[in-house]
Amino acid sequence: MLKLNNIQTSKIIAHRVGNKNRSEKNFTSTDLLVLDEHLEEVLNKYFLKPFKQIADTYHFSHSVDMSYHLLNGLVKKVFEDNEQFYSASIDILNHLYEQSNHPQIKSGDLFVVLFDDILIEDELVQAIGIFKSERKDAFLTLTESSERVIVNANEGISLRKLDKGALVVNVWDDDGYRVFSVDNNNYDASYWKAEFLGVDYVQDKNFDTRSYIDMCKSFADEVIKEKSGKKDQIEFLSDSIQYFTLNEEIVDDNFQDTLFESDEVMKKDFKEYKKKYEDEYEINIPDNIPISKPVLREQKRAIKNFIKLDTGIQVKLDFKDPDSTRQFVEKGFDPDKGMHYYKVYYNEELE
Q1: Lower Cβ count inside 10 Å, N or C end of the chain?
Q2: Exposed/middle/buried for residue 129 (C-beta within 10 Å: 0-12, 13-18, 19+)
């Protein structure tokens, strides 16, 4: 996990990147920015806030050889000699421009920053930040004249949410530098991470936790829902979330025993599906995984816990109490109406 409390801005420059597809030009700054203490604080909060709770870790990757990976070479050059920062920022700008080859990709302001004193793995290191701001917000400025207050409408960078950002940390492992990425405008899923950054996941506990939960979600959708319906699908997901919440580690056999008890057919289906999932995505999901709590929190928010019916009614089930679904919700079929139904038991209505 990154610790950014004592981070310092060593060098910073701002350029503008255009859209190559629309033949827009880049604007290249000739000088670094000079920040006072207040402006540095504002910018660092804008740049770094999204990274404080980030779970996924990436590394640079290339299908042929890392010597062909442009961004990896540029950051390596800066880490080895900070005086190369300015020329590297121009190369980063041009590299981003070359990937801006789709009409949906927005032009924007590009900040390249050299940071000092990022704490990772108990070591203070440098990092290179690359941040792209695409959205503009309208704002008002008020000035006083001798007779009245004058209101002016302006437009500028929105500080509410960073559009795209990456931190490349000067920690070298067997698979390269550690990279962290943010993309809040997913209009082109491959543009930022795949084409510009050229990164892949580091297979750590965050990756393994996400893979196991994603596999469970797919199993619930493709196997349980098809066999037993939406209610059983949600019950399985609810039980899974409860297991992940109550345990510090996923132990595959224990997970199956807990979720399926003595249902050997379902255990067999799960084992076969896990193997199919690993083959399809070319990954290996370990049988023992320390659970990443940040990934679990993120995944909880992403799982849908409601049944949407064609009559315009939705039944929302509570993941916090999975047993209530079994006790107080029944599914059936009414032959007179020729329709399926859900019967819900309760004592009183709550506000």
Answers
A1: C
A2: buried
Q: Which helix (H) or strand (E) holds 10?
A: strand 8-17
Is the distance from CB of 246 to CB of 254 less than 8 angstroms?
Answer: no
Q: How far apart are CA 156 and CA 150, in angstroms?
A: 19
Q: What is the pLDDT of residue 6?
A: 86
DSSP character at residue 317: -
CA 181 and chain centroid, separation: 8
- What element of type H or E holds 340? strand 339-344
CA atoms within 13 A of residue 219's CA, in its CB half-sphere: 25
**Separation between Cα atoms, residue 328 and residue 220, nearest integer Å:** 21
Output the DSSP codes for 236-286. HHHHHHHHHHH-SEEEHHHHHHHHHTT-HHHHHHHHHHHHHHHHHHT----
CA distance 39 to 24: 29
The Cα–Cα gap between 70 and 75 comes to 9
Distance CA 349, CA 20 (A): 58
10 burial (CB, 10 Å; 0-12 / 13-18 / 19+) is middle
Report how far residue 300's alpha carbon sits from residue 44's, in angstroms, rounded to the nearest whole number. Answer: 29
Using one digit for the tens of pLDDT, what is the confidence trace for 136-167? 887 787 888 777 888 888 777 878 889 999 99
- Residue 98 is predicted with a pLDDT of 95
